[in-house]
Amino acid sequence: MTAIRHHIPDDMLDAYRAGTLPHAFGVVVAAHLSLCDQCRARHEAADMIGGAFLLGAEGANLRADARDRMMASLEAPAPKPPPRASGPFPSAVMNELGGRPPHWRMLGGGIRQQILTTDREGSLRLLYIPPGKAVPEHGHSGQELTLVLQGSFSDSAGAFHRGDVEVAHDEIDHQPVAGPGEPCICLAATDAPLRFRALIPRLLQPIFRI
Amino acid sequence: MMLRGGLRDGTAEDVVQDVMLAVWHKAGQFDPHRADAAGWIYGIARNRRIDMARRRPLAQPDEMPELESQEPDADQIIALQQEARHLAEALARLAPEQVEALRAAYFDDVPHSRISEMTGLPLGTIKSRIRLGLERLRHELKKIAP
Question: Is residue B146 part of a domain?
């Protein structure tokens, strides 16, 4: 496997750790952390610093009945663990898929997608791009975070393989092309709808919600 | 930690209870080869605090795969505990404003922009304080454990 070369930016990891990242982006970060030892180490090292402060923190007293309530709650069964990683999909993605394989929708040109979640804060989808195929050229009115789960793609910013993330900002027009070999499967979060350059894809945008 | 996070007394107590319960349920997943206990518990507490405030729980990375050998490796465990102790010693050697910046960023997990609002200091100052604090920490760690 190729080493991961494109990582989560520091600011985004901080926002993930603080819980302020929109859900769609949080899933991409969690999926990247599942695949990237380097970022996982950054994440856990930060917890270690938090732990060092925890040891030095002053305690506060709990209410008198806290112990009894605690003992009682231990009787309750453990919460259900999230679905396990499966194939190219980390646990965070399987969770969005409801523990089932993707249910693809054809977009034309062999490209498929499944929208996992969409709300005011952003949308999250899986994309399936056959080898050598291009995603229509598009710009962004917001931010897009794309993680490769299988295969590869390349665009003007370089080549992206499994585990690599691309952060695309406003005003970047790019046309990702899937690499040879396996079909490329990506997890993409956006905080605004994409703008396509050509008229036809733009007409389709409201229908396909891409 | 929970009171510092801005939770009210009663809510903070519920989260503490919740964290203790989560630690109890997850104890089997704790791997002393990979994490020190304080950092591990801190991670659980951080997630529970966040989930109290969010509409949807924070997406979590995969559990790490079990190590291949089932035999505990005492050297590795001791090395990690030592690393945690060195970290605490190094923190104690930092200048107070650097400790405060790191505490806000890594213990309170306050976004840098919020720290800036709370202290009235420009965002750039906060960012460079945290960066300097980390660099200093790295430097001290090298001195303690070259």
Answer: yes
C-alpha span between A28 and A10 (Å, rounded): 14
**Predicted-complex ipTM score:** 0.80
The verdict on a CB contact (< 8 Å) between A51 and B111 is: no
Q: What is the pLDDT along chain A (210 residues), one digit of tens a residue?
A: 568 999 999 889 988 998 889 999 999 999 999 999 899 988 988 898 888 888 776 666 666 676 677 667 667 777 778 899 999 999 999 999 999 999 999 888 899 999 998 877 888 999 999 999 988 766 566 788 999 999 999 988 899 999 999 998 766 667 889 999 999 999 999 987 655 555 555 555 655 565
Number of domains in chain B: 2
Inter-chain CB proximity B59 and A20 less than 8 Å: no
A91 at interface of B, judged by CB pairs closer than 8 A: yes
Residue B145 maps to a domain: yes
| Beta bridge partners of residue A125, listed in sequence order | A115, A188
Residue B6 domain-assigned (yes or no): yes
Chain B residues inside the 8 Å CB shell of A11: 112
Q: Within a domain: residue B103?
A: yes
Cα–Cα dist B109/B50, whole Å: 10
Domain that holds residue B123: 95-146
User: What is the rounded CA–CA span in Å between residue B113 and residue A68?
Assistant: 40
Q: What is the pTM of this model?
A: 0.83
Handedness of CA B87, B93, B95, B99 (dihedral sign): positive
Domains of chain A: 1-210 (2.60.120.10)
From chain A residues 13-42, the ones with a CB under 8 A of any chain B CB are 14-20, 23, 26-27, 29-31, 33-34, 40
Residues B47 and B99 grouped into a single domain = no
